[in-house]
Design a protein that fits this description.
The chain is α+β, with helices and mostly antiparallel strands. The chain has one helix at 40-48; strands spanning 3-5, 16-19, 24-27, 35-37. Strand 2 (16-19) and strand 3 form a beta hairpin.
Length: 49
């Protein structure tokens, strides 16, 4: 699975990465650690709500 960081992260290491299918997020400092399974689209809708 492919992961990506925001282009606004300026290559920093304290970032959240999003899985390419938008089904999970993880901490960029620990890429082999746990990921949170969540539909990122639903999360954004909830935060904007």
């Amino acid at each position: 699975m492919t992961w990506r960081k925001s282009t606004r992260s300026n290559n920093g290491t304290d970032c959240v990465e999003v899985r390419s299918d938008l089904a999970a997020v993880r901490d960029s400092k620990n890429p082999t650690g746990a990921a949170i399974s969540i539909d990122v689209r639903d999360l954004v809708r909830h935060l904007k709500g």
